[in-house]
Write a structure and sequence with these properties.
With 191 residues, the protein is mainly α. It contains eight helices and two strands; from the N terminus they run αααααααββα. The chain has a single domain, classed as Arp2/3 complex 21 kDa subunit ARPC3 (Orthogonal Bundle), CATH 1.10.1760. The longest helix is centred in the C-terminal third of the chain and has 51 residues.
């Protein structure tokens, strides 16, 4: 029961952070030029499997505010697929290198997020939001190619600029919690 409660709480906190970050950066979280900073929360998957569901639920709620049912369904599923692909990578790194994520290993975690979004989200934008031109560019394939590049660059910024900032913060929290548990254990042993 305790693990389930912790899992739900962690997923809820991550989902809430995703929604808040997306709403604060609303202008950059939607449409053809997007840099959804909340995508950096894919890094939470290293620290807890609840990150998979937290990021998915947060994206689902955020996409509901976006207005397109195609985004709600397929944009959210894209995030779920990316998060599910991230989990085995994060688990393998954690198993081999321990509970604190080093920046050099953190570079591997966002790969599914960046790649899956760059492949799928251009179609969501094209069909869900009717983004059928990009500047002077017209035609389905050229527009989809530019949208893919735009989403790819936005995901790179979100995951590889803001992601390491999350890692730094989460490592500090993780270390503080470990120290707190260690001191409580020592106190209990002395008594």
């Amino acid at each position: 029961m305790k693990k389930t409660t912790l899992f739900i709480a962690q997923a809820g906190i991550i989902a809430a952070m995703y929604v808040v970050l997306s709403m604060l950066m609303y202008t950059f979280s939607y449409l053809e030029i997007q840099c959804r900073v909340a995508e950096a929360l894919c890094m939470t998957i290293f620290y807890t499997p609840a990150g998979v569901f937290g990021v998915f639920i947060g994206c689902l709620i955020t996409n509901i505010f976006g207005g397109s049912w195609i985004d709600v369904v397929f944009g959210s599923l894209t995030t779920l697929v990316a998060a599910l692909l991230t989990w085995p990578i994060a688990r393998a790194i954690r198993k081999k290198h321990g509970p604190n994520l080093k920046i050099k290993h953190a570079l591997l975690i966002p790969i599914p997020t960046v790649v899956v979004n760059a492949i799928c989200i251009p179609f969501v934008l094209y069909f869900g939001y009717n983004v059928t031109t990009f500047g002077d560019v017209e035609g389905k394939l050229p527009v989809l190619a530019i949208l893919a590049l735009s989403v790819f660059l936005g995901e790179l910024i979100s995951c590889y600029v803001f992601g390491p900032l999350f890692v730094f913060a989460l490592n500090r929290v993780n270390k503080a919690l470990d120290l707190s548990l260690e001191s409580q254990t020592k106190k209990t042993i002395k008594e």
